[in-house]
């Protein structure tokens, strides 16, 4: 008896999945977009965490490009996350770093411009290794 119930349920699911209404397909696409965006956000966070862990001078552009590259490869949701997420807004202490760079070190505007260039490079599918500094451990 259980076998027949399983066969009937499986047949129903297979038949129903063959002709999904448009609203169901739209909901599925929306769910995939949200999933890709969440995973893309995680990719961005992982790159940021690795940058903090590496603490390697001159490697920030590489990590910016890598985070955006990984996120954009997730699909439309990941590409959206890469465009929307800005490191200073996601991580408030980065805002303090940008302020410090602009006011104290004098290289804030130029450094921010180069960060944004690395972000665009990664988002558009460019190889993040273009920004990889010599000597950065293979782990990253």
From TrEMBL:
Enumerate the PROSITE patterns for this protein: SAA
InterPro entries in the record: Serum_amyloid_A, Synovial_Prolif_Regulator
Q: Where is the composition biased (Basic and acidic residues)?
A: 108-120
State the function annotated in the UniProt record. Answer: Major acute phase reactant. Apolipoprotein of the HDL complex.
Query: Region Disordered: what ranges?
Result: 101-140
Q: Which residues form the signal peptide?
A: 1-18
**GO terms for cellular component:** high-density lipoprotein particle
The superkingdom listed in its UniProt entry is Eukaryota
Query: What organism is this sequence from?
Result: Illadopsis cleaveri
Query: Can the keyword Signal be found in this entry's annotation?
Result: yes
* Key words of the record: Acute phase, HDL, Signal
Protein name stated in the entry: Serum amyloid A protein
